[in-house]
Amino acid sequence: MRIGEILEHKSGPAVVTVAPDASVRALLAILAEHNIGACIVSSDDAAVAGIVSERDVVRRLHADPDVLDGPVSAIMTSVVETCDEEVAADDLMGVMTRRRIRHVPVLREGELVGIVSIGDLVKHRIDELTFERDQLDAYVHQTQ
């Protein structure tokens, strides 16, 4: 299965963004409101300037409590692994596992169209395995 197909089956908004100059406090409100663990940093909702996660906030907050009033751009990851909709889900899962990343923005012709989490990919894989098991079970019971 391709990443584009996984995006089609996701519920909720395709992608949530935050402006680079938004405060970290505002970011936390966005993460809570949408019940998400990471947010794409973008000034125009199309170009990816970075990505920022709950982990980024926690790690910085431990060292500097004033980080909440600072800009998201100060704590975001600016070198972001991205993919396009044609990438195979299994290939992206391998990249995410090797690089130890949990969220990957999906681009179409350089513009942001979605985000895929490791949870989305694991759900897809579980669904595949469940389908295969059900098919095998039906075949075994049909031949008896």
Describe what this molecule looks like in 3D.
It is a single chain. The chain is of the alpha/beta class and 144 residues long. It has one domain (3-142): Roll (CBS-domain), CATH 3.10.580.10. It has 5 helices and 6 strands, in the order αβαββαβαββα. It has helices spanning 3-9, 24-34, 54-63, 89-99, 118-142, and strands spanning 17-18, 38-41, 50-53, 83-84, 103-108, 111-117. Strands 1-2-3 form a 3-stranded mixed sheet. Strands 4-5-6 form a 3-stranded mixed sheet. β1, α2 and β2 form a beta-alpha-beta unit. α4 packs across α5 (118-142). The longest helix is centred in the C-terminal third of the chain and has 25 residues, at 118-142. The model has no long low-confidence stretch (mean pLDDT 92).
How many DSSP H or I helices?
5
Biggest pleated-sheet summary: 3 strands, mixed
Radius of gyration: 18 Å
Structural class: alpha/beta
What distinguishing features does this structure have?
44% helix; alpha/beta; three-stranded mixed β-sheet; 17% strand; 144 residues
